[in-house]
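Predict structure. Chain length: 116.
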Amino acid sequence: MTNSVLIENIILPVPESNKDRRVSERLAAGKEIKFFLGNACYSGTALNFSSQGIFISTDTTPSIDSKFEVIMFIENNIIKEPVRVVRTSKKGHYYRGIGIILERPSEEYLDFIDRF
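Prediction complete.
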């Protein structure tokens, strides 16, 4: 069976080219996430997590190398992580999400990934 990701009962294949370049395994999710750009707060859905990054489905697309803080509500805890945008995803004329890397993953975040 090829690698796939389960998101809300929909199975999506993971292209071999993407799988081979991953440094760490991606874990499928569907968690609401908040992020701040300047004084504005935006929301999105974390479609997958890894120990080093997150892909967020969002209509707000900061530019590559933008740095900001992501806030996640995980297991009754608020986790704040400084991040940097490393990729944007576009379908047609519309952006559908951003790939972010965690600048300094906290112990709480890494514990969450280990338990996921």
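Summary: The radius of gyration is 14 Å.
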